[in-house]
């Protein structure tokens, strides 16, 4: 199955590269006069690529979980850790901006709290990544 997936991906990559080359030739031939009409196919190709990548990002993990059910437990543990970190970062976030400032930016207190919690979540995960790198370096040095 892996070989067939690799073949499909290679064929799709070649098709996308061929279309991109064709679109680039069209841009060079038509120039700036019809820029909007010439660039539309680029956008359609990007839409198709995004849709295909989204479908692949959803389907391939499901196939992997079906083939390896014991990995599902690890995934659920990881998902639980992420949910706990999200909850902690939401609880740590606070509304620090004034109501007048938020109204001038057309936003609300809820949006400010969500943005604050996303920033705190990013800080926590970055700190955990740095700690993991330090731990890995120390453990490799001691071996």
Question: What does this molecule look like?
Answer:
The chain is built from five helices and no strands. 87% of the residues lie in helices and 0% in strands. The model has no long low-confidence stretch (mean pLDDT 85). The radius of gyration is 24 Å and the shape is extended. It has two domains: 2-67; 71-142. Helix 1 packs antiparallel against helix 2 and helix 3 crosses helix 5. It is an all-alpha fold and 143 residues long.
Uncertain segments are none
Q: What is the H/E order?
A: HHHHH
How many DSSP-defined strands?
0
Query: What is the alpha-carbon Rg in Å?
Result: 24 Å
Fill in the keyword field for this structure.
2 domains, extended, mainly alpha, 143 residues, single chain
Compile the SSE list and pairings.
Blueprint: H1 2-30, H2 35-67, H3 70-92, H4 99-104, H5 109-142
Helix pairs in contact: 1-2, 3-5
Structure described in brief:
With 143 residues, the chain is an all-alpha fold. It is built from 5 helices and no strands. Helix 1 (2-30) runs antiparallel to helix 2.
């Amino acid at each position: 199955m892996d070989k067939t997936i690799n073949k499909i991906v290679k064929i799709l990559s070649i098709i996308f590269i061929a279309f991109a080359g064709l679109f680039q030739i069209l841009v060079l031939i038509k120039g700036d006069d019809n820029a909007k009409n010439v660039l539309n196919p680029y956008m359609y190709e990007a839409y198709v690529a995004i849709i295909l990548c989204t479908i692949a990002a959803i389907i391939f993990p499901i196939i992997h979980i079906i083939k390896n059910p014991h990995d599902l437990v690890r995934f659920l543990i990881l998902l639980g850790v992420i949910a706990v970190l999200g909850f902690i970062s939401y609880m740590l976030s606070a509304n620090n901006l004034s109501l007048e400032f938020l109204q001038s930016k057309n936003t609300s207190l809820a949006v400010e709290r969500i943005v604050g919690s996303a920033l705190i979540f990013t800080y926590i995960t970055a700190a955990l990544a740095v700690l993991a790198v330090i731990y890995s370096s120390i453990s490799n040095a001691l071996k």
